[in-house]
Design a protein that fits this description.
- 41% of the residues lie in helices and 27% in strands.
- The chain has one domain: Jelly Rolls (Sandwich), CATH 2.60.120.
- It is globular, with a radius of gyration of 16 Å.
- A hairpin with a 5-residue loop joins strand 4 and strand 5.
- The chain is of the alpha+beta class.
- Helix 4 crosses helix 5.
- The longest helix is centred in the last third of the chain and has 33 residues.
Length: 153
């Protein structure tokens, strides 16, 4: 089980009280993955949020040539699977452990019940997820604009 001291500094919980974090830990499960193990696979429907407690995870995507392109390396405190948690649609990328990794998972069913019973804490978590998605979108937009500028030089 994950202790509260292990997650107090995780961005996803930054606005949550100790009591709220304890309730979140009550619905979370701990999973371990060895180097090279796939955690989630692109185009497979998921319903869990993954929060990295320890280790590193590579996020990659298949491109039209069939090659796998690495997009990010995530570390302790990062999370992924948030879109599947919210939409129950297929994962848009693959996540693979590149170091022995421990993740805390929150299942959609448990998360939905949590939000129903504690809407204020649910709102805080959803706000953190939205802020993270917004930041990723901004980074992608900046890269796209840089790429377009490079093409027109």
């Amino acid at each position: 089980m994950v202790g509260i001291e292990q997650v107090m500094d995780i961005k996803l919980f930054k606005d949550c009280s100790v009591t709220e974090i304890e309730r979140i830990l009550g619905i979370a499960k701990l999973q371990s993955f060895k180097v090279g193990e796939t955690i989630i696979r692109e185009n497979v429907v998921g319903k869990d949020l993954y929060i990295i407690i320890e280790g590193e995870v590579r996020i990659s995507k298949l491109v039209s040539t069939g090659e796998s392109v690495n997009f990010a390396i995530l570390r302790r405190g990062n999370f992924f699977g948030e879109l599947s948690l919210l939409t129950q649609k297929a994962h848009s990328a693959t996540a693979e452990a590149i170091k022995n990794t421990q993740v805390m998972t929150i299942n959609k069913t448990d998360f939905d019940k949590f939000v129903e019973t504690d809407p204020q804490a649910g709102f805080k978590m959803l706000k953190s997820i939205i802020c993270e998605i917004s930041e990723l979108l901004k980074q992608m937009n900046d890269k796209f604009i840089d790429m377009m500028g490079y093409m027109w030089r």
